[in-house]
Amino acid sequence: MRLKDEQKFEAIIRATLELTHEKGLAGIKMSELARKAGIATGSLYTYFEDKQDILLSVDREVRSRGAAYLMQASTDDEENYEGRVKTYVGQYADFVSANREAILFIDLLQRSPFMTERSYQDTVDQYRFTLELVEEGQNAGLVREGDPEEMVHVIDSIIKMLIDHRQTHLKGAYDEEVRNRCKEYVWAVLKK
Amino acid sequence: MRLKDEQKFEAIIRATLELTHEKGLAGIKMSELARKAGIATGSLYTYFEDKQDILLSVDREVRSRGAAYLMQASTDDEENYEGRVKTYVGQYADFVSANREAILFIDLLQRSPFMTERSYQDTVDQYRFTLELVEEGQNAGLVREGDPEEMVHVIDSIIKMLIDHRQTHLKGAYDEEVRNRCKEYVWAVLKK
Amino acid sequence: MRLKDEQKFEAIIRATLELTHEKGLAGIKMSELARKAGIATGSLYTYFEDKQDILLSVDREVRSRGAAYLMQASTDDEENYEGRVKTYVGQYADFVSANREAILFIDLLQRSPFMTERSYQDTVDQYRFTLELVEEGQNAGLVREGDPEEMVHVIDSIIKMLIDHRQTHLKGAYDEEVRNRCKEYVWAVLKK
Amino acid sequence: MRLKDEQKFEAIIRATLELTHEKGLAGIKMSELARKAGIATGSLYTYFEDKQDILLSVDREVRSRGAAYLMQASTDDEENYEGRVKTYVGQYADFVSANREAILFIDLLQRSPFMTERSYQDTVDQYRFTLELVEEGQNAGLVREGDPEEMVHVIDSIIKMLIDHRQTHLKGAYDEEVRNRCKEYVWAVLKK
DNA sequence: GATGAATGAGTATTCATTCAT
DNA sequence: CATGAATGAATACTCATTCAT
């Protein structure tokens, strides 16, 4: 017999993200999803309970990959705080740029009829490292006072907006310039 | 589509926004929409062509109201530029807070399959005043260099994020404190 | 608008019974059911929740009609007990013969995956009159001792078997002869 | 279909009967059947053509076992006819009680779409002995006149109903008391 | 052979739109 | 015009059967 396949799981995730990007959440049809993933419609149900299970699973997967990426992003060898923040922002911007579909997906799912009671905690976990970085800066008197969690969200939205604006409206590619503007704007918001 | 009864149109808009808030765009069913608006399902088709027509009409309406609000927002009597920016941001924050559902709706519609080729121009129109304010600051050497349009989007996303974070995650009410933080963060990003 | 139609409800019941007779419970397809009832597939869902709801509703309806028939069946003017029992059995046999499809349906549904927790009570209600007749006979010393409920079931099975055997295996029509045999056999079981 | 492993065939029969008892014929899924029989889904197709083949095979097997049992049931040493009938009814009641699932299965299959044109003859074969017993009684003037085949069916339904009523509705165990009632009722129907 | 994942035709169900009242 | 029942195409999901391992 054929073994349940990690590659198929991966293919389904990829297909879901692509389809969401192309047609929006509501536009996802199981048959199309299967075709895009290169499997039969019925096979989707070997891997997932139903449509909602696919969407929530993709959400979970994509979030955890994001968290993993941000966790591993090293900022250690930088000497000063500002430099470390900017390095981190640069890495985060790279990640956002490379994972636009995933980020769009999470965003759309959040406000969809498929999202039932997903806890806010999930999101927080994902930002733990960023949060700690902000708190460190506040403790060192280098960062503006204020709720660090809120600040993290603001930073997040700035970076996503800059990249989205560039790619969606200006049809431009993500480049060093946008990357630098991310650093600039974020640092402007943070610094005391 | 011409209107036969202004009140019904209003009810349909309100119902659309509420439903979008509750279940997301994909969760809007004509029957539910009608019920929420207090009319019969079939009557929706007296006022609108089809579902897409409703969504696009609500979008148009809500956008034009937003633009009208921002247009009318006066900043004239303030003496200095920073003060005028902050006054404006405060007013904008008030508007965002008072129209969260509408803003969510626009946001979701933007990336939905219902939105066919709505031009980016619409959005620009809406931000014309903000844009001019930023450009004025740049000309006066008070505002950081950079694409003003991009800056407007960044400002916009900061304000929306601050208010959304407060209301959604902290379940807190919009108040003077959030309003002030909007001003602070925005000015931090703008100022040279 | 069109009013929800009692006739359609009736048509669906009839179609369900016919289809069950023709193809068995498992052979009922919503599309075919709708066609047989002369309505659109989707309309089934105007009248019922889902397939199971149709089956359980038909069950309920058919049972209550049976109970109503047996309730109304008069035996009053007969002078002696044996005569009254035989009159009643004759009427019941007429009913069974005229409602074979309904009886088959109830029987099949009983042991189907659609039947969840239908209580035994339903069945008892339906037999109340028969039960009282048996008890009356026992009190008068005319009927054999024993659990009256059990006796009612035995009587029921005898009548159904006689009629089914005649119609199914012998392809014969229900007639006075079978009717009389019902009376004979039942009375043989009952009499002391 | 030839057998490769007698034990597996036995397991499949048992699983089929259990499943039919639990969920009815329509509720039998190949995957569940396989799980219950302790083999893989695909293996079912090593032993049988398809689903219908399983059901008909189980039917055949179960019927032949029943016939074998009734054939072997001896009534020879009883002196008088009534005693022999009662002995036989007692044995038959024992058999019915011990094979409720099989009997339900046969009953349901009979009226299902799986049963194509299984001849009525099969059933007759199975009742040959009972039939002869009744005919003997009629010839001896001890049994009521009437179609012996019909009488056999009536007897059969009485016994099954008594046992089913006891076990299903009263949750009681089959015991000497029920056994005796079977004899009583049957003899009441038969005797002239 | 045995296994259970893969397949896809077949079905139940949804829901935008139409239409009789 | 308003109503909400009726429609049926569109879609999610099931499950007998096949087949790669």
Automatic annotation (TrEMBL), chains A, B, C, D:
Q: Which residues form the HTH tetR-type domain?
A: 6-66
Q: Which residues bind DNA?
A: 29-48
* Alphabetized Gene3D superfamilies for the sequence: Tetracycline Repressor, domain 2 (1.10.357.10)
A molecular function (GO) held by this record is: DNA binding
What does the UniProt keyword field contain? Answer: DNA-binding
Q: Which InterPro entries match?
A: BscR_C, Homeodomain-like_sf, HTH-type_Tx_Regulator, HTH_TetR, Tet_transcr_reg_TetR-rel_C_sf
Q: Supply the name of the protein.
A: Transcriptional regulator, TetR family
Which source organism?
Neolewinella agarilytica
